[in-house]
Design brief:
122 residues; mainly alpha
């Protein structure tokens, strides 16, 4: 009976862990989608900026709830630069740092560094 309880608890913990990982990946995908939208569409006008701000807020709150501190900090830095910085290289570098932090959360044993993340844009 005791082994059955331990197995049940283990299964519940695994299911909870899988659910958290799934939610993280959804939030991380939204971060990537925001970046792609910024690069491809270059939002202009009040409506586009307001929508972008809502997306940043929504994903930021989700990250705060489920992501490690390193990712939350990197996200906040990128968001600040993406919404008010004219230096595109600095903004892209902060995004690459965020992307690398996300990768470390998903693949902790990663050997890639910021240079590899920066090379993603050619």
């Amino acid at each position: 009976m005791e082994n059955e309880v331990v197995n049940l608890e283990s299964g519940i913990l695994q299911s909870a862990s899988d659910a958290v990982i799934s939610e993280k990946i959804k939030a991380y995908n939204e971060v990537i989608a925001i970046f792609v939208d910024i690069v491809m569409d270059k939002p202009q006008g009040k409506g586009a900026i307001k929508t972008l701000g809502k997306r940043f807020s929504t994903v930021g709150i989700r990250l705060f709830a489920i992501a490690p501190d390193e990712i939350v900090t990197a996200f906040l830095k990128w968001r600040t630069l993406a919404t008010g910085n004219e230096n595109a290289e600095q903004t892209v570098k902060s995004y690459a740092e965020l992307l690398l932090a996300i990768r470390r959360d998903i693949v902790p044993e990663t050997k890639h560094d910021i240079e590899v993340a920066m090379d993603l844009w050619g």
